[in-house]
Every structure is written in structure tokens, then in C-alpha cells.
């Protein structure tokens, strides 16, 4: 096994072979890139974030985002641009849709690697990259198409650039800081400025480094920020006068302060998610706050300063989203990079001083045991995956989880081989991450519109319009490459539907009565409907003379007989 060696001095962090970083890079590329094209787009988010750039490529309009061919202003444009570029180069596929997110995840790992190396040494830098890259939440969000991984990467880059600039006194780093913030704003809006500003403010308060405030107001960097971020906002507001109100007022302030989107969770919602987010490294979290740990007993003033910075970075983001009236699990992805660095630094500290490592390993095994038990309980429920498949996946993940910690404990107990124990932990974590890929294909059956769309496409006549009843299946327009009529379903398209003419709205956003009138008149439709809702739409039962396709949880009913 390749051994990771972390020495007691900053300059002593070395690797047993100069090829180790390249092996790690190759392994990270393997685990982040290989699953991208193996399964259909998950509903609803992946379907949405693939369809918007597909429509951009089709229309040639890269200023006004549309979803199902109506305006969609809930997010800025950068993620769509990245996916559109991927489609232009690689074609319209699941792989191309997810590739920008995976590349952003890998870039975030590289930034953390570099920042941790600068602060704690090369060995800790490599270990930070492994810790981040193998963390459950980071990997899960890094291999699907969402805005959360790109914004996490840009915030990570911004904070790393700020800290290096602050420590080194080289203001040129602030240019990168402002450029990364601008990209974060173009990815997910004002949090791209609010979060970094909040982190810097509280870091200055806790360290009393007041001189940083005028230093960070670096005029060339501020100009770079506006040059990158302003043009699209100006153009989209010019072409869509209502954009400012909808995007900044409704989707920022009202969304943050109210429960308008029905995503309310209690204040503490994210707290129990943090241990799950950094699995399989969760067992090392208590070591951060041990009496001799890296936070309470830093080895130098520089390490103390770095610990404060990383803890503030994590805490501000966690508190900000905890206070929000709208909460979703991916929101806390930007919390994971600073925690990954702290965990790696904590492991380094335990190895340096020869203390707490055995206890931390035992804690790690105990936590992983609880996680495995939860996995098997969930697998037995068969909620999202068939029980046999779920049990097989649980067994596979369990072997990946236990392998590293178990062999690390053996190395520690028998030989007190700290380097070998850390190497075993890293290897087990990467194997666990590789095993996570086994979840995707079985999840496709219940969480993707891919199979429904393929059944529809292979049977649909050119003149038949697609309709979906009672919900929005975001992946159907992407796979069918055409607009879908919605029956008794507006959801997040309510704003876009309100912006089109009445004649267009009456064609594509139908009430049940109007749809049935057209259906009975013989209009060529293929309607997708969840089996549980069949009686809601066809109260008298489905006409068995029609062409009907059974697509697992859905039925596809054509307004024609068999041909």
C-alpha cells in the first residue's frame, strides 16, 4: 500500500513516493467522472438544470433562461452556460450535463489541497484532498448537475485567495478573491458576496486584524468583480424588466425570510447532517475539540489563526442557512471544505503527538457501525430501491466503510504504524466513495424520468403532443427534445406561465376540464400520468381501446388506438 507520511514540521510533510499525488489525482478523476453517464437524470433538479441549457443551445438565446420554453429566473446563468458549452462540445447527454459539476468538484478539491498545503504542509494538503473528495455529501453533489457544487467551489476559491492574500500581504490575491466571488454571484446570486463578506467580517472580529478591512477593499479586484458579474445582469434586466423584482426581491429576500417555497425546516435541521456529510471521517470530528487538538492547542500562531479562519468559514455558512426559511440539504456543501482541512490537520496533530489516535479510530469504527445499521434499516424499507438491490448496496458500502478503519486499527494496535494506519484510512475512504456509485443505477428506476421518456419516444407519432398530468417531470422535455403541455400543474413554472400570451398559456398550461375536452375531440396527445392519479383524470376509467404503455410507476396513454 502507498503510505502517506506526515512529519512534525510544516516542511516535513512528505510522501513515500513522488508519484502519490498523481495516483490520487487519477483515482479522484476515476470516481468523479466514471458515474456521470451511467444513469438517467434525477427528478426534478437534474432534469431542470439539463433542460435549461438545452433550450439555450436550441434557441441561441444565452441571456434569458427558459424552462419548458417559458422564462425561468430562479437562478443566475453561469451553471447553464457551463452545461450549454458541454452540450456543444460533447452532445446532449447525461454525461455532458453532469461534467461541469464534477469538474467544479475536482477544482474545489485542488483548491483545498493547495490551501491546506500552504497552512499545514504537503502531507496535510494531500490528506485534506482525500478527506474532501471522499466525503459523502461532497461526492454526491459533485456527481449530479446542480448549482450547489459550482457555487461551493467558487466560494472555496474566494476564501482561499482571501486568506493567502491576508497572510502573505500580497494584494494581487484579492483579484482572484473578487473574481471567484463574481463567479459565485453568477452561479447562485447574492450569497456569492454575502457569505464571503460575513466570513471575513467575523474573522476580523475574532482576530482583531482590523487592517484587513481597508486592505481587502482592493480597487482592481472590485473592478474585476463588476466586469465579470454586471454584464449579464444588465442584459437580462434590459430584456426582461420584471427580472429584478422576481430574482432579487422574491427569490432572495422573500425566499430567505419566509416559507414561500414550502421548504421550511427547524433551525437545527443542518446540525445532524454535518456528521453524515463528512462520512466516513465522522469519527474524527470530536478530535477537533480535544484538549490537545488542533483548535484548542495550535502548534504556532499561524496555525491558531488558520484554525479560527476555517472555523469561522464553516460556522458563518452553517448559521446563515440555518436561519433561512428555506432549507435543502445541498445548501451546506460549502461547509464541507473547511471541515475537511480541519479534520486532516487534526489527524496530523494526533500523529505528531502520538495521542488520541487509537481512541479516534475506535470512535470512527463506532460511528461507521451506526451508519451501517442505519443503511440496512433503510434498505429493508425498500423506500426508493428494491429491497434485494438495496441490501446488496448496503453490504457493498459497509465493506468499503469498515475496510479502511479496521485495517488502520490493526496497524495501530500491532505496530503503532501511524503512517500505515492513515494510508489504510485513506484507501478505505476512497473505496467507500467508489462503492457509492452503485446507488445511482437502482435509484434511476424511481427517481428519473428516463425510462418513461424512452418508452414515450419509441411509440410517439410526430403529430402527437406530450402532456403530463398533475406534476412536472423535468426530464421529459430534455429527452424528448420538445415542449411538454402541463395539465393541472404549474409549480415553479407559475411565473414563466404568467409571462406568456393567453393564447400560448391556453395551449400549454391546461386545466383538467379543457384537456379532457380536447382529448374527447380527438386531439393527438400522449399523456403521462402516475398510476395513482389515473382516477383523478379519467374518472370513468381509461378507455382500453387506446394505446397504453405501462412504464413502472406511470402510464403513457395515447389518444389513438394501436397502430
Describe this structure in words.
There is one protein chain. Helix 21 links the parallel strand 5 (465-469) and strand 6. Mean pLDDT is 88; it is low at 5-17. With 563 residues, the chain is an alpha/beta fold. The chain has a 6-stranded mixed β-sheet. The protein has a two-stranded antiparallel ribbon with strand order 1-2. The radius of gyration is 26 Å and the shape is globular. It has 25 helices and 10 strands. Helix 2 crosses helix 3 (78-90). The protein has 3 domains: 4-34 and 73-355, no CATH class; 356-442; 449-558, no CATH class.
Write the layout of secondary structure elements.
Layout: E1 4-5, E2 14-15, H1 20-33, H2 45-59, E3 66-67, E4 70-71, H3 78-90, H4 94-120, H5 122-133, H6 136-142, H7 148-168, H8 172-188, H9 191-207, H10 212-216, H11 219-239, H12 243-257, H13 273-277, H14 301-322, H15 336-353, H16 357-381, H17 387-415, H18 418-436, H19 440-447, H20 450-459, E5 465-469, H21 475-480, E6 484-487, H22 494-498, H23 502-508, E7 509-510, H24 512-520, E8 525-530, H25 534-537, E9 548-551, E10 554-558
Parallel strand pairs: 5-6, 5-8, 6-7
Antiparallel strand pairs: 1-2, 3-4, 8-10, 9-10
Amino acid at each position: 500500500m502507498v503510505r502517506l507520511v506526515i512529519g512534525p514540521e510544516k516542511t516535513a510533510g512528505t510522501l513515500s513516493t513522488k508519484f502519490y499525488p498523481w495516483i490520487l489525482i487519477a483515482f479522484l478523476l476515476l470516481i468523479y467522472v466514471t458515474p456521470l453517464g451511467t444513469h438517467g437524470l434525477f427528478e426534478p433538479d437534474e432534469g431542470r438544470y439539463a433542460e435549461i441549457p438545452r433550450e439555450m443551445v436550441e434557441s441561441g438565446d444565452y441571456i434569458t433562461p427558459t424552462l419548458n420554453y417559458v422564462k425561468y429566473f430562479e437562478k443566475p446563468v453561469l451553471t447553464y452556460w457551463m452545461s450549454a458549452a458541454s452540450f456543444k462540445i460533447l452532445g446532449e447527454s447525461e454525461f455532458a450535463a453532469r461534467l461541469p459539476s464534477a469538474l467544479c468538484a475536482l477544482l474545489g478539491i485542488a483548491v483545498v489541497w493547495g490551501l491546506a498545503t500552504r497552512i499545514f504542509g504537503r502531507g496535510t494538503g494531500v490528506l485534506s484532498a482525500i478527506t474532501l473528495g471522499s466525503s459523502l455529501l461532497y461526492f454526491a453533489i459533485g456527481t449530479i448537475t446542480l448549482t450547489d457544487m459550482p457555487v461551493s467551489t467558487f466560494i472555496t476559491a474566494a476564501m482561499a485567495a482571501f486568506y493567502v492574500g491576508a497572510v502573505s500581504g500580497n494584494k494581487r490575491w484579492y483579484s482572484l478573491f473578487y473574481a471567484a466571488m463574481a463567479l459565485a454571484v453568477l452561479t447562485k446570486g447574492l450569497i456569492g458576496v454575502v457569505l464571503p463578506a460575513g466570513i471575513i467580517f467575523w474573522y476580523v472580529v475574532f482576530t482583531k486584524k482590523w487592517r484587513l478591512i481597508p486592505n481587502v477593499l482592493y480597487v482592481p479586484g472590485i473592478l474585476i468583480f463588476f466586469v465579470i458579474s454586471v454584464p449579464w445582469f444588465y442584459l437580462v434586466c434590459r430584456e426582461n424588466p420584471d427580472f429584478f423584482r422576481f430574482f432579487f426581491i422574491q427569490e432572495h429576500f422573500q425566499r430567505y425570510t419566509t416559507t414561500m417555497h414550502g421548504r421550511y425546516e427547524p433551525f437545527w435541521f443542518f446540525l445532524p447532517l454535518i456528521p453524515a456529510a463528512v462520512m466516513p471521517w465522522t469519527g474524527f470530528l470530536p478530535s477537533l475539540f480535544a484538549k490537545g487538538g488542533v483548535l484548542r492547542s495550535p502548534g504556532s500562531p499561524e496555525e491558531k489563526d488558520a484554525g479560527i479562519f476555517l472555523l469561522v468559514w464553516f460556522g458563518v455558512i452553517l448559521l446563515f442557512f440555518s436561519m433561512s426559511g428555506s432549507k435543502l440539504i445541498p445548501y451546506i456543501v460549502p461547509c464541507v471544505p473547511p471541515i475537511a482541512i480541519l479534520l486532516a490537520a487534526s489527524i496530523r496533530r494526533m500523529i505528531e503527538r502520538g495521542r488520541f489516535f487509537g481512541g479516534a479510530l475506535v470512535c470512527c469504527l463506532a460511528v461507521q457501525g451506526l451508519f451501517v445499521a442505519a443503511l440496512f434499516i433503510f434498505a429493508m424499507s425498500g423506500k426508493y430501491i428494491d429491497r434485494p438491490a438495496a441490501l446488496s448496496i448496503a453490504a457493498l458500502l459497509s465493506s468499503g466503510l469498515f475496510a479502511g478503519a479496521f485495517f488502520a486499527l490493526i496497524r495501530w494496535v500491532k505496530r503503532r504504524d501511524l503512517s500505515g494506519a492513515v494510508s489504510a484510512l485513506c484507501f478505505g475512504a476512497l473505496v467507500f466513495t467508489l462503492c457509492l456509485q452503485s446507488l445511482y443505477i437502482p435509484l434511476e428506476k424511481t427517481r428519473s424520468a428516463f425510462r418513461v421518456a424512452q418508452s414515450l419516444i419509441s411509440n410517439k407519432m410526430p403529430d402527437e403532443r406530450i402532456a403530463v398530468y398533475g406534476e412536472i417531470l423535468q426530464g421529459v422535455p430534455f429527452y424528448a427534445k420538445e415542449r411538454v403541455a402541463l395539465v393541472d400543474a404549474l409549480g415553479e413554472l407559475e411565473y414563466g406561465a404568467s409571462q406568456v400570451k393567453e393564447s400560448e398559456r391556453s395551449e400549454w398550461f391546461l386545466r383538467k376540464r379543457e384537456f379532457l375536452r380536447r382529448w374527447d375531440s380527438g386531439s393527438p396527445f400522449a399523456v403521462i400520468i402516475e398510476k395513482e392519479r389515473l382516477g383523478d383524470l379519467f374518472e370513468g376509467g381509461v378507455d382500453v381501446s387506446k394505446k397504453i404503455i405501462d412504464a413502472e410507476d406511470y402510464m403513457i396513454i395515447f389518444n389513438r388506438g394501436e397502430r
